[in-house]
Amino acid sequence: MKIVKTSIDKIKIYRTDYLNSLPEFQELFIELMICNSDYYVFLEDNNEIGYAIRNNDGVLIEFYVSDKYIPDSNEIFRQLLEDLSITNIYCKSFDSLLLSNCLLKLLPYSILGLLYRDYFEPLINKDSSLKMKRADLSSVGLMMRQDDSIKELFETEQQLIDFIKNENVFEFYKNEEFVGCGMVIRTHPEWSFCDLGVWVNPSKRGNAIGSQIILNLREFSINNNLEPSCGCAIENQASQKTIEKSGFVSRYKMINFKTK
């Protein structure tokens, strides 16, 4: 088998098959890495049988082989780790092919984050006094004046501008006071799944405002025919409580397997 570097356009069909094969949809944390990564196709007798994506830090973030070659996936996986000098693997726990190959190699691991896909009854009642306003480019100054914790939601001013132009960004007010903001980010443009992001003014935290923002973002998503999900780092217990108060439940994890 050969592993050949290629372009993302050349693996588009296989990526579609991969994303459709998952019981749950892609995590935005991974999807945001895709455009700045390297792409590889697997060739067996000059036939394409699958692909891999490695980010710029040497982390394997996607691994896929067509159904016919699943019995050979362990050997393909072994060669992939060696040829591409993979240092870590980010694996969604619902990605059974990648997960099983990592486990068969007995790779050490740690949990990076919680993936929220299921939703039940919220633990709070919706606060009708919380007002939601769509952000526009005039909102950039307001958000950039907040403390550095707002970078939990967007990393740079340019990223915020891009989100405002291309996605759904909202300001939230209580008693006419700015208390936080939130985003509904489409995970992939060709699917109806989205990720909900929340930031609450530090002086207003501890009052379930974050959970209230998620309730509003989830309602907006559903009304616009989008399927919402959330995710957060495993060490961020405050975010976990915020998300779970809104009704989301995590059955899945983002796992970091170490190869070296």
Task: Estimate nothing, just give the exact number of structural domains.
Answer: 2
Average pLDDT for all residues: 96
Strand content: 35-45%
Instruction: Determine Rg (CA atoms, Å).
Output: 20 Å
At CATH level 3, the topology of the largest domain is Aminopeptidase
SS class: alpha+beta
As a percent range, the share of helical residues equals: 25-40%
Let me know the largest β-sheet.
12 strands, mixed
What's the CATH superfamily of the largest domain, by name? Answer: Gcn5-related N-acetyltransferase (GNAT)
Strand order of the largest sheet: 1-2-3-4-5-12-6-11-10-9-8-7
Distance between the amino and carboxyl termini = 23 Å
DSSP summary: helix tally: 8
Give the name of the CATH architecture of the largest domain. Answer: 3-Layer(aba) Sandwich
Poorly predicted regions are none
The CATH top-level class label of the largest domain:
Alpha Beta
Shape estimate: elongated
Oligomer: single chain
Series of H and E elements:
EHHEEEHEHEEHHEEEHEHE
Count of extended strands? 12
